[in-house]
Design brief:
single chain, 2 strands, flat, chromatin binding
Length: about 800
């Protein structure tokens, strides 16, 4: 137990000390006392001994200790006064003033008790003196009880107040945060409205909006970015801002020019900060989509304005993004730049195509196909690939002027200065008028347009040839680009682009291009130029595309030369057997049927017969859409080649037209050596019994070559259209075999269960869920019972074994005792 604190009894305040020498007793005082002795008798009866003892309890021992005690008392009084002055004027509980009996009003102050530490220190200092009066035991106990009760009360009040205070603090913080966000939103709205109303006078507000958008709350940042986007779209001028040079700034200008310069400089600095902020935020996942959307909107709305290069570099970088939303936004923006060249004069198109070329080079052609498909939206003038020709009007004008000069020389005086001045003035005015007309009509200079389109076209073909060269490299790994098939994701859009712009290819590159397409299509197997491993890198769809592009290029450029594309036809003849519906694209195959067989000129009879026979065999193996496209191609070939209709005859020895090969060889790689004229189209007899009515009807019309009213449509439909129409019909078409199977199941099974004709999912819907649930429950209960029985049997075996061992032990023990 620690030392108990002693109760301090302080002496009363002493009267002011007066030295004995200063006390003067007059004669009048002595006479007054003598005359009134009866009134002064109480002085003689005073107990001076007890008074002296009470006053001089400490002074008898040490006068310095008594003086220090009085000094401490004075200090405490002064401290208490200061605390009362610094204390709260009004208690939170009693907020109303108090009126005294005199009628005065005053506010209660918070009274603070003296600390116990000071009392303990005082007690320690005073307890050293032996003359100090100590507290009794009863007083000490009462004092301790009182202190304990007060401590318990304070603890209870603190426990009750702390949770309420914490909750109130949290609510206040939330309220303050919400109020701050609402105030920022209102501020953004007010500043944006003021800027849209009068941008020149309120241009300073745009910097305040930028400061608000730097907030830590993501919602405020997104709102600020969108608000600034709307403001910039509205107030950005239709021209590119050029800041004045130092010399121009030193010149004296009018107030209107100063105001315009200040407006343009402030707008340009704010726009630069906004673009930099968007470029920085697009690297963060939280703000990526919002920042990219703002960048794309700015680039599409104001492609002529400053800092277009920064916007374009960021947008082009994301045209191969893994995020579908970001990639679509960027691709749509780039395509809008290509289609709307009037906003930027074609400069943004050149820059974008060059950036895409650099992107393809840096990523080694491993990008999303959309990054090259955007190039298909480019448009070029038809006479871009042709050399420039001087205008006929200029030639005639030059001739006429020469004739006039020759005829006027002898009649007119050459030194006539007035006519020279007049001609110069007329030429100057015409130049000024033409310049003003171009500026007002935004008409682009034809030479400048031709130059930019030439640069764009060269960059486009640079991309295409790089992709083709990359596809020819053997030993490449598997592609990991999402949304792409095969190890060459950019080959399909590259081939589509070559087919679209094939009429603009220079004839000097034509031989190299055809050689490259021949290798990619796999025609080098026969000639030995290409190994088997490198040809197997491409899928069937990609090799078919190479054949299609070769036909397009030759038809657009060298159609007049009458060149036979025998190698591509041989490869196409072999690729028909390698086609798989689930793996390869049926649209590409139907397109190859149309371009290589239907749209081509008259085929050789042996080759046409080989393709007719192979397509008829192909129709037996695949779905109705592919079969329909193949049969439409067969009908086109039979209509063009009348002699091939002998394949429809059912003679015992085959067709009536004998070729160089007397027997049909179905596994021949060259259609000219297959001997298809010696065969019969027996496949049509099976196709006439096809489950799909469209396939069976066209097969019957081919077998009779009948062009009745219901089949005229098919005779004029291309293989692509037939494939697309039938593929859409197949989504809602059900095979008749399913109906038969469903009816057989209904006969075999329970007749009470309702069975619908259709897929297995429809049949499963009719099963009673409660019955299935009950059967599963019984099954699993049985399995659990079997497991429990196995456990019980194993335990029973162990216990019986233990009992047998115990009995054996008892017997041995008895024997030993005997």
């Amino acid at each position: 137990m620690g030392k108990k604190k002693q109760k301090l009894v302080l002496p009363p305040e002493l009267p002011p000390e007066v030295p004995d020498e200063a006390v003067e007793v007059s004669d009048e005082d002595v006479q007054f006392v003598k005359e009134n002795l009866e009134y002064a008798g109480f002085v003689s009866n005073l107990d001076t001994h007890s008074i002296t003892k009470h006053v001089t309890r400490v002074a008898d021992a040490n006068e310095e200790a008594l003086e220090s005690l009085y000094e401490k008392r004075l200090r405490k009084k002064l401290e208490n006064k200061e605390k009362e002055q610094n204390a709260l004027e009004v208690d939170p509980v009693d907020a109303l003033p108090v009126k005294t009996l005199d009628g005065q009003l005053y506010y209660r102050r918070v009274a603070k008790e003296p600390k116990a530490e000071e009392e303990s220190k005082e007690g320690e200092s005073i307890s050293k003196d032996p003359g100090l009066v100590k507290l009794t035991k009863a007083e000490k106990r009462a004092k301790h009880k009182k202190l304990r009760k007060e401590a318990k009360k304070q603890a209870k009040e603190e426990v009750q107040q702390t949770p309420q205070a914490e909750v109130l603090d949290e609510v206040k913080k939330d309220l303050t945060a919400e109020e701050a966000n609402e105030s920022k939103k209102y501020k953004l709205a007010e500043l944006g409205t003021a800027l849209l109303a009068d941008p020149e006078s309120n241009i300073k507000h745009i910097k305040e909006m930028l400061e608000v958008s730097k907030d830590g709350d993501s919602a405020i940042v997104i709102l600020g970015l969108r608000s600034l986007l709307a403001v910039f779209k509205d107030i950005i001028p239709g021209y590119r801002i050029r800041l004045p040079t130092e010399k121009e700034q030193e010149m004296k200008v009018s107030k209107a020019v100063k105001k315009m310069r200040f407006y343009e400089s402030t707008l340009l600095s704010a726009y630069k900060a906004y673009v930099q902020k968007l470029v920085a935020l697009q690297k963060q996942p939280v703000y990526k989509r919002v920042a990219v959307r703002c960048l794309c909107t700015l680039l599409a709305a104001v492609p002529h304005f400053n800092f277009r290069e920064s916007l374009l570099a960021t947008v082009v970088k994301h045209i191969s993004s893994h995020d579908d939303v970001v990639r679509k936004l960027c691709c749509e923006t780039v395509m809008s730049l290509f289609t709307n060249e009037g906003k930027h004069g074609g400069e943004a198109t050149v820059d974008a195509v060059k950036m895409i070329a650099e992107l393809v080079k840096d990523h080694n052609c491993q990008l999303h196909p959309d990054s090259v498909e955007v190039l298909l939206s480019l448009s070029f003038d038809e006479d871009l690939g042709k050399p420039e020709k001087p205008d006929a009007d200029s030639r005639t004008n030059n001739k006429k002027s020469k004739k006039r000069k020759g005829s006027d020389e002898p009649n007119h005086i050459p030194d006539n200065e007035r006519k020279k001045i007049r001609k110069e003035m007329i030429s100057k005015t015409r130049e000024e008028v033409s310049a003003d007309f171009k500026a007002a009509s935004y008409a682009q200079d034809p030479q400048e347009r031709r130059r930019m389109q030439s640069e764009t076209l060269s960059a486009v073909f640079q991309i295409f040839f790089r992709i083709l060269k990359h596809a020819m490299q053997p030993g490449l790994g598997v592609n990991t680009v999402p949304g792409a098939s095969g190890s060459h994701p950019l080959l399909a859009p590259c081939l589509n682009g070559i087919g679209k712009f094939s009429h603009l290819i220079d004839l000097d590159f034509m031989a190299d291009l055809m050689r490259c397409l021949r290798k990619l299509a796999g025609s080098g197997i026969q000639s030995g130029d290409l190994s088997e491993n490198s040809s197997c890198q491409l899928t069937v769809s990609e090799r078919l595309r190479c054949c299609i592009v070769a036909f397009k290029v030759m038809r657009n450029n060298l159609d007049a030369l009458n060149i036979d594309l025998q190698e591509f036809l041989v490869q196409f003849y072999n690729l028909i057997l390698e086609y798989h519906p689930g793996r390869d694209q049926g649209e590409v195959l139907a397109k190859a049927f149309k371009i290589m067989l239907c749209d081509d000129r008259q085929h050789d009879m042996q080759r046409a017969a080989a393709f007719i026979k192979r397509l008829a065999t192909f129709s037996l193996c695949f779905g109705p859409a592919e079969s329909m496209a193949a049969l439409v191609s067969v009908k086109h070939l039979l209509q063009k080649n009348v002699k091939c209709r002998n394949l429809l005859e059912n003679d015992a020895g085959g067709g009536s037209v004998a070729g160089a090969i007397a027997k049909y060889q179905p596994y021949a790689t060259d259609p000219n050596r297959s001997g298809a004229l010696a065969s019969v189209l027996w496949e049509l007899n099976l196709l006439m019994k096809h489950y799909h009515p469209a396939v069976s009807s066209i097969a019957s019309s081919i077998s009779t070559m009948n062009t009745s009213n219901n089949q005229v449509y098919h005779s004029h439909v291309s293989p692509q259209q037939a494939y697309m129409e039938l593929s859409q019909e197949n989504k809602s078409f059900t095979e008749p075999g399913d109906i038969k199977r469903a009816s057989n199941k209904r006969k075999r099974g329970n007749d009470t269960l309702p069975v619908k004709v259709g897929s297995d999912l429809n049949l499963m819907d009719q099963v009673d869920e409660n019955e299935v649930r009950k059967k599963f429950a019984d099954h699993f209960l049985l399995l659990r019972d079997i497991q429990e029985n196995e456990k019980l049997r194993s335990e029973l075996d162990r216990t019986t074994l233990a009992l047998n061992l115990y009995e054996h032990y008892k017997k041995q023990k008895k024997r030993k005792t005997r």
